[in-house]
Batch of 2 targets.
Target 1
Amino acid sequence: MRHILETIKLHKLQEVEQRKQNTSEEQLKNGVLFKRSTISLVDKIRQANTPHIIAEFKRQSPSKGIIRNNADIVSITAGYQAQGASAVSVLNDTKFFGAKANDFITAREQLSIPLLQKDFIVDKYQITEAKAMGADLILLIAKMLPTDVLKRLAAYAHQIGLEVLLETHNEKEIKDHLTTEFDLIGINNRDLNTFRVDIANSIALSQLLPKSAIKVAESGLDDPQVVTKLYQEGFNAFLIGEYFMKASDPTLKLKETRQKIVI
Ligand SMILES: O=C(O)c1ccccc1NCC(=O)[C@H](O)[C@H](O)COP(=O)(O)O
């Protein structure tokens, strides 16, 4: 069976080609938000040695199906900011994650903290789009693209003022990118072949990174004690989606989680 990322990649390539027909990159660059100054998550993390939560807004996922399809982007993302998220991540993919067309821009309109545009980037055009919709940082996934392409895309993102979170999941992906310039290194706790979450694997992989790297634990985090453990092991930030989104009150769940993390 085809890997989920391969399926997503094939779909993205088609989707992006279609969007290019409707809006040129030059048109995107003329948008108001393309010119805005971005807000740095890296600075925020370097300034405060504390567990930084990147709270994610996601309606559904390939591993869990529908999580909260009719979620209100305004109240949830505003609540995340009010409850101390260091950044908010908004899924921007419709086919696999159920994003609605205006989710990202609506979040941008009301947030003053860094906003991660969470998509599956296979083309420079999507990075221009991300900037044009008001992103501060983007995600690149090591498994999806060759190293030289990832480096080129990261360089372009930096050129237009975006920070880059590189997602990794195994030793090779980490070692291949050790010397390259990504701003934050994510380690996905979830194996996307099996959807199994393995925190011990993430801790072992994090030891391969230099102390100075900003390490982000991603996926499957549903216990403040586990976040505490990962923080003690050197992770700086925690990308949490489903745990908040499936709670009866996502922003209250973020508040409780932050209170329960021991530092
Ligand atoms: O979440 C999935 O099922 C998934 C499947 C295939 C590719 C990516 C996937 N997730 C994207 C993410 O990065 C997560 O939304 C993010 O790490 C938050 O994870 P969680 O806290 O488990 O919602």
Note: The chain has one domain: 4-260.
Target 2
Amino acid sequence: MTARTSVLADTACAGLSALVTGAGSGIGRAITLRLVELGARVTGLGRRAETLAETGSLAADRERYDYEVCDVRDTEAVVAAVGRTGARHGLGLLVNNAGGQFFAPATGISAGGWRAVIDLNLTAAFTVTMAAYPFLAEAGGSVVNISLSGVERGGMGMAHSVAARSGILGLTRTLALEWAKDGVRLNCVGPGTVLTSALSDEAGRHVHDNLVARGTPMRRATAPEEVAELVAFLAGPAGAMMTGQLIQIDGGAHLGPGLHMLPEAYA
Ligand SMILES: CCCCC/C=C/C(=O)SCCNC(=O)CCNC(=O)[C@H](O)C(C)(C)COP(=O)(O)OP(=O)(O)OC[C@H]1O[C@@H](n2cnc3c(N)ncnc32)[C@H](O)[C@@H]1OP(=O)(O)O
Ligand SMILES: NC(=O)C1=CN([C@@H]2O[C@H](COP(=O)(O)OP(=O)(O)OC[C@H]3O[C@@H](n4cnc5c(N)ncnc54)[C@H](OP(=O)(O)O)[C@@H]3O)[C@@H](O)[C@H]2O)C=CC1
């Protein structure tokens, strides 16, 4: 079965100003393109100008897209880039999507490997969110953190990443409490397998034979556009009473055998 993803009204995000990290590829690009299509203006953020510019060339209205080249692990650069974006356009939505990991059993993760993944998937999201807070508070805006399916149950081969994303869930729920007084909402979206080039390159046949075929009750991967539609829903007026939630968009993977990035998990 294919995904029918475009269900929101054409103007669902009109007037919204958004910052999307990791907008140059995969899920972040799909989120960016859909937000622009729905009337938002978006600043994409990532390390590579070329891919960020390419996202702009695909946008429904290029005038409502710009980008900042920035490593989310560089606190000073993040504060400057988010500050410029907020001052220029305001900020009604932050999507913390930049992230990733390598896949290894916990015994194969060095201290440096642990740090790299925690820095990227937990600490950097904290840094970006804190830099965005004054602008989000001014706009009564929201944050969507892109997490992982199975964050509450574990996933073999992803100890560092699941730990980081569990931290993000705790952060999301805590800030949802602390910032409700400002009208700022925060939610997590947990995709299952999404066949972006990043995942396909990394895991190859394991993804098709196990994560999709055996690990996903709905027997298909999540489309990037499905994640994008959910983000737009949460950001717009329909999501106005949703905060502190984890919404898993994974074809039921977190209910079933789960998505483990070690082939032997399926033996
Ligand atoms: C739930 C559904 C299942 C699928 C879930 C998830 C899917 C996805 O997220 S799709 C995206 C997948 N692709 C990626 O995530 C690619 C991005 N990955 C990275 O950029 C790196 O893996 C990174 C997160 C570690 C960041 O890289 P960087 O900071 O450049 O790190 P270094 O290369 O300098 O290495 C730091 C540290 O990590 C050790 N390391 C790196 N790769 C591996 C590996 N494959 N196995 C074991 N260890 C690894 C590396 O040796 C360094 O450690 P030390 O030498 O001890 O410092
Ligand atoms: N694909 C999947 O199956 C799933 C993915 N996810 C998560 O969804 C998110 C997007 O994944 P996906 O689209 O597949 O992967 P991609 O690798 O295509 O996207 C990651 C994006 O993040 C950016 N990025 C990475 N590191 C940094 C950094 N240090 N500073 C700034 N930007 C950075 C990259 O751009 P650049 O390199 O130019 O900086 C890239 O555009 C990730 O958090 C991923 O873990 C969750 C569940 C499943």
Note: The two ends are 27 Å apart (CA to CA).
